[in-house]
Amino acid sequence: MGAGMSSGRRRSFVVERSGGLLALLGLQVVLEYGRAGATRPPVTAALLAANALVYLRPGVLDGLLPSLSRASFNPYLILKHGDLTRFVLSAFYHLSETHIFYNMTSLLWKGIQLETLMGSAEFASMVAALLGLSQGITLLLSKGLLLLGDDTAYYDQYAVGFSGVLFGMKVVLNAWSDDFVYLHGMVIPSKYAAWAELFLIQAFIPGTSFLGHLGGILAGLVYLWLKRLFDGPDPLTLLISNVAKVVTWPVRFAQRLLRSGRHITGQGRVGRRASARETPRGIWRCSTCTYDNSLATDICEMCSTVREDRAFSPRQHHQAVGNGELSFEVLEEIRRRRLQRFDR
Question: How far is CA 52 from CA 19, 42, 103, 266, in A?
Answer without folding.
Answer: 11, 15, 11, 46
